Model the fold of this input.
Amino acid sequence: MNPLDEIRRLYFQTSKATIDRDLARAIDLLRSMHDEDEREKAAVFMQGLADMRREFGGGRRKRPR
Done:
């Protein structure tokens, strides 16, 4: 499976339980892409994954004051 197809698959199959792992994998795949056109196509899915992480409450947490 090529990187774009795998990023697309991750986008459609991610869940609240897997979002951090899936986003990290998608970032690795994006970094491995050398074709700028492919990266631009992947950007839509990457933005969607980032939005899901925000919605699911994953990722960085604010530090208590």
